[in-house]
Amino acid sequence: MLYIAPSILAADYAALGEDVRKVPNADLIHVDIMDGHFVPNLSFGPDVTKAVDGVTEQFLDMHLMIEQPEKWFETYVAAGGDRLVFHVEATSDHVAAAKAVHELGVEAGFAVKPGTPIEPYLDDLEHFEEVMIMSVEPGFGGQKFMPEVLSKVRTLREHITGAKLDTIIAIDGGIAEATIVQAAAAGVESFVAGSAVFGKDDPAAAVDTLRRLAQAAR
Ligand code: DX5
Ligand code: ZN
């Protein structure tokens, strides 16, 4: 499968509902939660998540860039999150955290910052529906893609195929027409794009273009 996941971090917050409705062809909606501690920025929280959930049937992939994510799992499931993706750097027991997410009846994922190696997590992938490789330092949209993280994608792809797992490899940060091709070729299946979708006049056309480019590169 191939998933294009527009990040509403780049949407117009004064017209958030309208912007979400502009991408009915997106496979997922990526919701960036920032707490001003784990990352040096704030975004939005459970109430905005709930409002977004109220205007779309689409799957909400929750990117939790927050400290002590476990404290918030229940809140974000209640707000409409369909998958909770927490950062391994923010938890001391990522497998226990995944189990806590599953007990709430939704999918679990983990994210790694650009400088965090993937090897320590390879044997735990069976507990996760998604692994998110950050290709920028988390905290802000519109940053430059870091191609060096693609070696982690290749390692993951090899491991996931070898172990016959279904874990989805996602990439987040700096994905646009110019970068999606290399990410797809390395083995990414799910592509988060903020400015490359909502920064365009026609966000739905941008989603289609990104999907076509990714498909051709696989
Ligand atoms: C950054 C966020 C990203 C962000 C991506 O911390 O996790 O999801 O929205 O934005 P672009 O696609 O503009 O790099
Ligand atoms: Zn994100």
From TrEMBL:
Q: Which CDD domains match?
A: RPE
A single cellular component GO annotation: cytoplasm
User: How does the cofactor bind to this protein, according to its record?
Assistant: Binds 1 divalent metal cation per subunit.
Whose protein is this, by species?
Corynebacterium sanguinis
Return the protein name. Answer: Ribulose-phosphate 3-epimerase
Q: What is annotated as the active site?
A: 32 (proton acceptor), 172 (proton donor)
Q: Name one GO biological process term.
A: pentose catabolic process
Which protein family is named in the record? Belongs to the ribulose-phosphate 3-epimerase family.
Instruction: Please name the SUPFAM superfamilies in this protein's record.
Output: Ribulose-phoshate binding barrel (SSF51366)
Q: Which residues form a coiled coil?
A: none
Q: In which pathway does it act?
A: Carbohydrate degradation
Q: Give the binding site residues for a divalent metal cation.
A: 30, 32, 63, 172
